[in-house]
């Protein structure tokens, strides 16, 4: 009777999962009940998500979560987090009125370059939203949608981020949640509402958005799945990165830098105020928000997408833990690469072949391409490690203090080579936790909303108690 059961739906751009969380004796245990690959599909020159397929997997996972409950137990709640920026346009009846594009669609390139060239506009948008000019921004996507399909202004009445949309499919309520709203480059960096200046700049109709809700808001009971009839839908930090940051077993002295390492490497920390101005803009700092409204300035470094994609060019890619360990061990034994990759290369955004994109950059810089997959693994991990270090140094420079530790969660936290490369390049010890960060943060918000845990500080303290950590001291 004392155990509480909640489900986390955590959707990433390359894979999704449904995790059943059990809260008992002040301790959270996780059971992954469903995991599935996710990918966008190309239709002509554009890239789209298959939301029907994703929704099917979400439903399958939630049924599995219910099936995994002990006899007589009930699923108290469910929460959804997804990758940021991508969204749907709906009418009042909840019908999709525009196909859901994937953020790697090249359609934002002209808008991206236009804004990059107009210094005054770039500074104005950054001062208003605290979000730098990046190809995946919702702002650029919506600007392109409105420009290429002007009739959309008559058809669409609402814009929901994908986490909001899955909340709607589950509960029937259309809300915009704060953390994911902050990824759009359309939210006011100083308040909790949408930025008129940014909406006007991108010509996005203000009516498409409602004042954002904060995490912990109860959206009502699940309406769409009879098996979950009594289950509450709770708004969690809808942005996967915000949920992952909530799961950081951070020290209360603020000395920890956070690194959520997956497809992207999100390097950042929590702060009372946003970091703005010329230095912040130059360092491409995104002042995204926590589900409660706080700031989590971060830099988005190209992450393990580089390695995931490069592996597609090799027919023999590791399929289980032992093969992974062998690949990492082989990569570790190699001499340090003569030069590292420039991660800002736009050719890495969505190449047909990542290996060819890497080789082309190396060739341009008169560097030799690695011989085999181990060589690429070494080059990529060392390069990402240096990217992490650069981000850390930019933050330290701006806030005028050193970080004591780098806390690392996500898929990359199990990659020894990447953890060590990060510690070495940053000169800061890394503490890695093999933790499904986003799912854990998602569950934390639900437990707090249900009254089982007092607040996030308490949750983090209880979590840190049971977590296994691996420490990497800087070397070399
Ligand atoms: C990570 C993430 C990043 C965001 C990128 C695109 O999954 O949410 O935070 O910048 O995906 O949305």
Describe it for me?
Helix 15 (416-426) links the parallel strand 15 and strand 16 (430-432). The chain starts with a strand and ends with a strand. Strands 13-14-12-11-15-16-17 form a seven-stranded mixed beta sheet, sandwiched between helices. 37% of the residues lie in helices and 19% in strands. It has helices spanning 51-67, 109-117, 119-129, 138-148, 152-155, 162-171, 178-181, 196-202, 240-246, 278-282, 305-311, 321-333, 354-364, 373-399, 416-426, 437-449, 456-466, and strands at residues 4-11, 15-24, 27-37, 41-43, 46-48, 77-82, 87-90, 158-161, 218-221, 232-234, 256-261, 264-268, 286-289, 295-302, 405-409, 430-432, 470-472. With 476 residues, the chain is α+β, with helices and mostly antiparallel strands. The longest helix has 27 residues, at 373-399. The structure holds beta-L-fructofuranose. Beta-L-fructofuranose binds at residues 12-13, 83-85, 103, 136, 239-241, 263-264, 266, 300. It comes from Horticoccus luteus. Residues 258-449 form the Carbohydrate kinase FGGY C-terminal domain. Residues 7-243 form the Carbohydrate kinase FGGY N-terminal domain. This is Rhamnulokinase.
């Amino acid at each position: 009777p004392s155990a509480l059961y909640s489900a986390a739906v955590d959707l990433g751009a390359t894979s999704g999962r449904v995790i059943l969380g059990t809260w008992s004796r002040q301790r959270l245990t996780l059971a992954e009940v469903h995991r599935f690959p996710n990918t966008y599909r190309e239709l002509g020159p554009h890239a789209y998500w298959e939301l029907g397929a994703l929704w099917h997997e979400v439903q399958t996972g939630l049924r599995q979560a219910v099936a995994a409950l002990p006899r007589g137990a009930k699923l108290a709640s469910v929460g959804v987090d997804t990758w940021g920026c991508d969204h749907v346009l709906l009418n009042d009846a909840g019908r999709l009125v525009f196909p859901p594009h994937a953020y790697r669609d090249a359609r934002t390139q002209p808008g991206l370059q236009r804004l990059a060239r107009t210094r005054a506009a770039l500074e104005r948008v950054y001062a208003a939203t605290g979000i730098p000019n990046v190809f995946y921004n919702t702002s650029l996507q919506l600007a392109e949608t409105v420009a290429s399909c002007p009739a959309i202004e008559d058809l669409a009445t609402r814009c929901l981020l994908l986490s909001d949309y899955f909340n709607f499919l589950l509960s029937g309520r259309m809300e915009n949640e704060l953390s994911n709203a902050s990824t759009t480059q359309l939210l006011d960096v100083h308040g909790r509402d949408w930025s008129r200046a940014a909406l006007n700049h991108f010509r996005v109709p203000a009516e498409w958005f409602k004042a954002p809700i904060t995490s912990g808001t109860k959206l009502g009971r699940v309406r769409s799945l009879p098996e979950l009839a009594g289950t509450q839908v709770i708004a969690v930090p809808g942005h996967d990165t915000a949920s992952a940051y909530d799961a950081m077993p951070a020290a209360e002295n603020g000395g920890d830098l956070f690194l959520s390492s997956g497809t992207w490497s999100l390097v950042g920390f929590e702060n009372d105020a946003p970091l703005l101005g010329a230095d912040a803009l130059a360092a491409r700092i995104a002042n995204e928000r926590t589900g409660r409204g706080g700031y989590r300035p971060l830099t988005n470094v190209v992450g393990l997408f580089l390695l995931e994609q490069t592996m597609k060019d090799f027919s023999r890619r590791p399929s289980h833990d032992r093969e992974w360990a062998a690949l990492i061990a082989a990569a570790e034994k190699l001499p340090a690469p003569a030069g590292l990759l420039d991660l800002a290369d736009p050719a890495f955004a969505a190449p047909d072949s990542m290996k060819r994109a890497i080789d082309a950059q190396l060739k341009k810089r008169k560097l030799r391409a690695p011989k085999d997959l181990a060589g690429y693994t070494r080059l990529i991990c060392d390069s990402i490690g240096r990217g992490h270090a650069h981000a850390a140094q930019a933050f330290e420079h701006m806030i005028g203090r050193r970080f004591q530790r780098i806390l690392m969660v996500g898929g990359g936290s199990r990659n020894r080579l990447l953890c060590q490369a990060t510690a070495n390049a940053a000169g800061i010890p890394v503490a890695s936790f093999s933790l499904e960060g986003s799912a854990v943060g998602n569950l934390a918000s639900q437990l707090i909303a249900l009254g089982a845990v007092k607040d996030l500080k308490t949750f983090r303290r209880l979590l840190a108690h049971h977590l296994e950590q691996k420490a990497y001291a800087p070397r070399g």
